[in-house]
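MODEL INPUT / OUTPUT PAIR
PAIR INDEX: 1
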Amino acid sequence: MLQKLFSGFFLFLCLMALGQTDSIVTLDSMKTLSKKEIRKAKKKKKKIKVVHHDSLILFNKQVLVGEVKQLAQGVLSFKTAYSDSDFKIKWKKVAELYSDRIFIIELTSGSRLNAIMYPGKTGKKSEVAIGFGETTYPTDLHNIIYLDPIGKNFLSKMSASFDIGLTLTKANNLKQLTADAAIGYLGQKWSTNSTFSLVKSEQDNTENVDRLESSTSLQRFLPADWFMQGTLEFLKNSEQKLRLRTTSRLGVGYFFTKNNRQYFGALTGIANNREEYSDGITDSNSSMEYFIGSEFNHYAIEDLSLLTSATLSPSLTEKGRLRLDFKFNMKYDLPWDFYIKTGITYNYDNQAAQGASKGDYVIQTSFGWEL
């Protein structure tokens, strides 16, 4: 039953995403730019080669002229005619920005809209007026936490990363491989993200370790920092004698804080949990769960970012059963989009399979690259 509900919810989110318009999300009585007008602007852009002349003024008085590519997680990507690659500029270092283009804009208040940024009317340099024509909404430049030009293609809205770690030790002939990968898409009304994590370890006189974890989530943004989310997760873990655990989650969440330094959100809902064991004793199992989870991401410590998440899942159909999934990652950015990451993943189940460990953790350090 829940699987049908989950499939229906995913279909609902997809239809909402496909049916989203490019009209402005109004702030109070702000005027709407119609879908037809935006389509017309996009067609015009395709017919001629557009040269953008966005301007930045930094707090150190440096002036840059070029093209705003994107603002996300407190970092502005900016392209100039003389640079081989985009500049990555901390948003807090930008004093003024001037552009006549239409952007997807997200504010700290949770509002998401399509608008042009005009100079403010009070004379304060950091003030901008977002909207169209005579109908605008004044705000401080640093209340903007996401900025994306209208008309970008699908691939330009995607993100991806891959990292790998390898350990070889002569003692006990230890060989260990770890790998992580992620790919995501961020649109105006929705986002999707998929992750993959692998740990394989071989050692003399010890059972091999085989762990595989992956997840795919689809998130639909709602007004005032609320969101809906559907998630499908898979876990294979030799330590807990899991041949495969498949978890389908449906929930609603809220961002308690979301700005250019960090975000913190929580999510709650129901889940269906299906498990197949490798011990040859424990029967396959299907159960219903209630879950509550949270995620915190801090990305304003220069080149260092911290990401932690936790999900607590009490069972609704198995008396006394409780599961916990916890992750913590610390990433340090290197030149040319490379990075070093270290983290810990912990899974706990107070009613694990017979002879299996209730808790299992992985600590890993890896080197990777992100797009």
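PAIR INDEX: 2
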Amino acid sequence: MLNINDYVEMTKEDFIKLADEKELCPSNFGLNEIVNCANGEEVDTCHNCWECALENIEFFNPMIAFKNNSVTILDDLRIMEKQYQQLDEGRKNLKNKLMVLMEQYGIDKFENENISVTYVKGSTGTTFDSSKFKKENPELHALYQTPSVRAASIRFKVK
């Protein structure tokens, strides 16, 4: 007889997939089966049987593991994000003050051993409205689609 405790490091979903692949039933582990068990003949019945048999078994929960292992990282990220927002706000404020001074004194470029600043005049340009083009010309838009690979990343929001 197999021991269910040898499998609790898996997620419940992974265990049921394994049980499907190896055609295992709860009785192989000394667990109770449902009364109308079809002995593997119907997948839905088997899954229902497993769900009933496993209801008191605690399997690995990746969300809990992630939460337990990421508490410090998430807290550090939250603190750094607040600091970043404060620094970014201060940076924008300083750049605006510098731009006002450059406009006031007519300075287009300033350089010293620590920094180089160039004043870029505002302008009006045009952009291509790809959403509107796609809506109005879906076939033509599709001809110009090219695949692009994006690196994995995360998004987060500090509350």
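PAIR 2 NOTE: The radius of gyration is 30 Å.
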